[in-house]
Amino acid sequence: MRLILCLLLLSGHLAFSGSRTLKAQKTVAGQTAILATRLYRQVIARHPIGVPEGKELDVFRPYLSSGLLHSMDQYRACTSDWDRKNAGSSSKSVSVSSSPLAG
User: Which CA distances in Å does 4 have to 7, 8, 9, 14?
Assistant: First the structure.
């Protein structure tokens, strides 16, 4: 008898916690869809070319991860350093719009 009672209580707990988890997953999925839609609208409105900088970057910053922002900063620093070291040479630096980070 105790085993049946324990199983009933356990199944009720699992059913309740499972529905709560599913609800949380739906909420996260909905928030992700809203975020993606907002980012898409910004891209369509601005038609960015290459790696955004300045005010254009400020618009996209809330949608980008800290890791991606760090990679973009490193790319800019490396490009600036290369340009500085190779000023006046016949070699050309990679432009921001033709970078691997450019979409």
Answer: 5, 6, 9, 15
